[in-house]
Amino acid sequence: MSPQTNNHPIGKSAPRKEGRKKVTGAALYVDDLSFPEMLHGTTVRSQVARGRIRSISFEGEIPWNEFTIVTAKDIHDAHGENYVALILNDQPYLADEVVNHPEEPILLLAHPDKYLLEEGRRNVRIEIEELPPIFTLSESMDKKEIIWGADNVFKSFLVDKGNVDDVWSTADFVVEGEYHTGAQEQLYIENNGAIAIANPAEGVTVWGSMQCPYYVHKALVKLFGLPEEKIRVIQTETGGGFGGKEEYPSLLAGHAALLSWKSGKPVKMIYDRAEDMVATTKRHPSRTRHKTAVSKDGKLLGMDIEFIIDGGAYCTLSPVVLSRGTIHAAGPYYCPNVRIRSRAVATNVPPHGAFRGFGAPQSIFALERQLDKVAGTLGLTPDEFRRRNFVKEGETTATSQLIREKVDMEQLLDRAFELSGYHEKQQRFARENQGQVAGAGGSRNSGIKKGIGFASFMHGAGFTGSGEVYLASVVGAEATAEGRVRILAASTEIGQGTNTVFSQIAAEALGVDESLIEVAQPDTNNVPNSGPTVASRTCMVVGKLVESAVLGLKQTLIGSGHLSEAYGSAEFQAACRKYIETLGPLKAFSKYQAPPNVYWDDEKYQGDAYGTYAWAVYVAEVSVDLLTYEAHVDDFVAVQEVGRVINPVLAAGQIEGGVAQAIGFTLFENVVWKDGRMANGQMTNYIMPTAADIPPIRVYFEENPYAYGPGGAKGIGELPMDGAAPAILSAIENATGVSFNHVPLMPEAMMDELEGLQRQGREM
Fold first, then answer.
1. What is residue 393's three-state secondary structure?
2. Regarding beta strands 98-99 and 51-58, do their DSSP bridges make them parallel or antiparallel, or are they unpaired?
């Protein structure tokens, strides 16, 4: 029997590989683990935004001789490097002479009794001479104080296509706008945590909740000055990440390992929710300014875009976030002249870092709000203006990337409008909204206005530009003595379905049952570096390597005469067992190779920014209460072209979860800053949407298989984060007649704007 006709798991909703362990409680998270003589660790942090450390004292009725205490001096004494190895290596594990943000780690404590440990933490006194801080993007750009480098700028990019400066004089209309987005907390279910066993004889082993084991591995090599083989990093079951466990676990793992190294005992460090919220990374706040030139017939002539993000006190991943936000800032539209200038700048708040979408939600929000404004200036409907400017096959993006695949944004728009009843509802809501006034009573004049809006956008899959080539990811596959196939990859299962999708891809390629596929636990001693679990790359990029690796196993079996061209699962198992019995281990590895015709110029920031894109149109229907000034999303339609769908249930779950998270970003999740510190770092006052706040999210896929993805798949994990905010604000504008250009849009802000307009005598 041919394997091609025997089994086709791709396209089917296979159950989660790890599902049974999770629902029965058999899955072990980092806080479930314990080791003999294990200590608990904690962090003593700065309470000021910027200053010089003058003294540290240990007070109270505390048996300090029982504590393990680690400062920056311990790192220097051990000849390690006191920085988290990432991009610019500017963030210390422990502040030495100066602090640059509230909650910056200064000192570590460990003790067997975690309650006494907390008492000890409260009795450490740190005297800091305060220095003038800066907290806002504008203060940083104005160089009110120089707090990082020569100009407070971590990174800048320039995308330049055509000649923008020449279009202003010939344009029929020039439209300008400014847009802002706030910070957002990842709110994964499981807080950050790590356990370390470290000593000079055996090296360092860390277990932790993380997305990227090899990031942690790289960081620990530098921290301890040890050879790579003396560092081992093991991912435990991880309860969500959303980017918040991309780079931050390197810091926490280093802290646990430093305490273990000094104490000679295992050390566990688990953040509670309050510490996790105030101390860890968040989505970068942003400010975007647009200047758009258009002709009277509604064609884009020029786009001049300034995109600025707040990186916080240290660089972390800001250059990468800035890069993706920059490239997505001009959207899925053709424009002959584009200039995008972007910067990531420093402020004295805790460093911002990776978060689902990676800069694209910020820049796409600004673009879509700007295009609604341009359409209004032209007297065109928002959808008609988009139709006249959608990029098509054979045209180029802002980075001059030639679109080689079939792209039909108009068809996506038509389907989204049909499914949502967009035009009918737009007309009906306009009639019904007449007479709705703030505070009015009665069934007709209820003070509720309805609106409907949309956003059209795309999201690049994989690392930007030459990033995937630089990563040089590797995936392995090995046959076991039982005749099964084990996938060897560092890509982590964090709730999104990695293990299940890898199993489906491998089973499809081999033509065997999925039950024969295992996915190894990510452990840097046992799996190769397949790159980080980020950037919508796991399924498309790493999944393709999985496909190639298992096909390598198959060819080895056929070439050695152990397997015929036509076989079933039983024959495949028997062939694996026989090969291992007679010839020994059976393994195959696959290394990333860029698709053909992909070229990227890092200096000019031009070329093929991504191998492919997912394309989407989202439609939101909202109700705006003119008494409470709350907006509620009543219905949401998400239509996207994502290549081929590997697992429909998991794929729909990714879209639903991303949209729900984006609704929080848009209407609920307001990070309140006070002197550089998150003032509402609790679940009681940092408001996230509940099930009652989330509408039916109707998910629809268009399939256009991508030749260089496994089974034709593209990446989809970040896509749904991009479109909800502009779609919802477009709907609110449709309901109220008022354009809001910032998120989160809280009731207080809506009240100020709408009541201000009422005082001016403008009817809503």
1. coil
2. antiparallel
> Residues near 409 by Cβ (< 8 Å), separated by ≥ 6?
332, 386, 390, 391, 456, 615, 617
Contact partners, residue 301, CB within 8 Å, separation at least 6: 167, 170, 171, 293, 294, 295, 335, 336, 337
Q: DSSP string spanning 266-291?
A: -EEEE--HHHHHHHS--PPPEEEEEE
Q: Count CB neighbours of 24 within 10 A.
A: 8
Report residue 119: phi and psi, to 5°: -60, -40
Amino acid at 13: S
Separation of CA 455 from chain center:
20
Give mean pLDDT in consecutive 10-residue pieces for the chain, a chain of 764 residues: 63 96 97 98 98 98 98 94 98 98 98 98 98 98 98 98 98 98 98 98 98 98 98 98 98 98 98 98 98 98 98 98 98 98 98 98 98 98 98 98 97 98 98 73 66 98 94 98 97 97 98 97 98 96 98 98 96 97 98 94 96 98 97 98 98 98 98 98 96 97 97 97 98 98 97 88 63
Secondary structure letter of residue 315 according to DSSP: -
Q: Which two tokens stand for residue 235?
A: 């991912």
Look at residues 252, 255, 233, 236 and name the one whose alpha carbon lies nearest to residue 244: 252
Residue whose C-alpha is closest to residue 15's, from 653, 542, 573: 653
Q: Rounded CA gap, 639 and 394, in Å?
A: 23
The dihedral sign for the CA sequence 124, 125, 130, 134: positive
Nearest-angstrom CA–CA distance, 402 and 413 = 22
Q: Are 321 and 309 in contact (CB under 8 A)?
A: yes
C-alpha span between 662 and 184 (Å, rounded) = 10
CA 722 to chain CA centroid, Å, is 11
What is the phi/psi pair of residue 100, to 5°?
-125, 0
Q: Are 147 and 348 in contact (CB under 8 A)?
A: yes
- Give the burial string for 367-406 (b: 16+ CB within 10 Å, else e): bbbbbbbbbeebebebbebbbbbbbeeeebbbbbbebebe
Tell me how far apart the alpha carbons of residues 70 and 75 are, in angstroms, rounded to a whole number.
8
Q: Are 370 and 577 contacting, i.e. CB atoms less than 8 angstroms apart?
A: no
- Which tokens is 712 given? 């034709």
Whether residue 548 contacts residue 517, with contact meaning beta carbons closer than 8 Å, is answered with: no
DSSP string covering 431-496, please?
Answer: HHHTT--TT--SSSS-SEEEEEEEEEEEEE-SSSTTHHHHHT-EEEEEE-TTS-EEEE-----SSS
Alpha-carbon span 734 to 48, nearest angstrom: 44
What single letter denotes the amino acid at residue 124?
A: V
Q: How far apart are alpha carbons 425 and 142 in whole angstroms?
A: 46
